[in-house]
Design brief:
single chain; alpha+beta; Aminopeptidase; two-stranded antiparallel sheet; 5 helices
Length: about 240
């Protein structure tokens, strides 16, 4: 699936793929695992590089998830995300780190859920000071003790393309809810783009200090219909 016909404000310079549907799937997945190794092991040291002697970071969840990539016009992989799908008697990745949830949080039907995982943008495509692993600019200065999300002239194209691919896959697969573990500033940045995630846990240590969130795609659609109908229309292109 190609990212195309986007409104002018976020015209992409990348092609996003659902890797499970690619003819060269295994080669693309190896490239994805290599990118994950570069970011999670060598750059951020979330995982030990010694555990991945082949230079490919992968785990037990990769066999039951959908993989997505963003490639530049030279077909180089510059972004990646996976959506881990529910399996009977198998925990989501975030559930291995988070056992406590906020009292008011409600857990949706498991077969309607997926977890956004390993969302990364290649280092040389995080060009602004404050860009996090998802390619979203977050100002690191904390006036008054508060982190500030820095406005951008253009939305993060790679992230939007990956989210669009996940959205199309989710609609076609009967997935209505997305779990995500992320830093609070990233959640606020996503909210500014129209992607509202509801906090369901206190802060936990899960590759850094993060919070678990849940997004209802029906509510996301309703919000975008009011705030940014062009973006919603672009997201829904290609849904059969």
């Amino acid at each position: 699936m190609t990212v195309q016909d986007a409104p002018d404000d976020w015209t992409p310079h990348f092609v996003c793929h659902h890797l499970d549907g690619e003819e060269n799937q295994q080669a693309m997945l190896r490239t994805a695992y290599s990118l994950r190794h570069q970011v999670y092991c060598l750059e951020c040291h979330f995982l030990s590089a010694d555990d991945y002697p082949e230079g490919l970071e992968r785990d037990q969840f990769d066999t039951h998830c959908a993989h997505f990539s963003a490639n530049n016009l030279l077909n180089e992989m510059v972004g990646y995300v996976r959506l881990v799908t529910a399996r009977e008697n198998v925990l989501f990745p975030f559930e291995e780190h988070c056992q406590n949830f906020l009292p008011q949080s409600e857990q949706p039907l498991r077969h309607e859920t997926g977890e956004i995982s390993r969302l990364i943008v290649r280092r040389d495509y995080r060009r602004r000071t404050g860009d996090n692993l998802a390619g979203v600019t977050i100002q690191t200065v904390k006036p008054g003790g508060q982190e500030v999300v820095q406005d951008r002239r253009k939305p993060p194209q790679i992230l939007l393309g990956l989210y669009r691919q996940m959205y199309i896959y989710s609609i076609q697969s009967g997935i209505r809810y997305w779990y995500a573990a992320m830093e609070k500033p990233l959640a606020r940045a996503l909210s500014q783009l129209g992607f509202r995630f509801v906090q369901i846990s206190p802060e936990i240590d899960y590759y850094g200090n993060v919070v678990c969130y849940l997004a209802d795609l029906r509510q996301l659609e309703a919000h975008l219909q009011q705030s940014n109908p062009e973006l919603l229309s672009w997201f829904r292109q290609g849904i059969s």
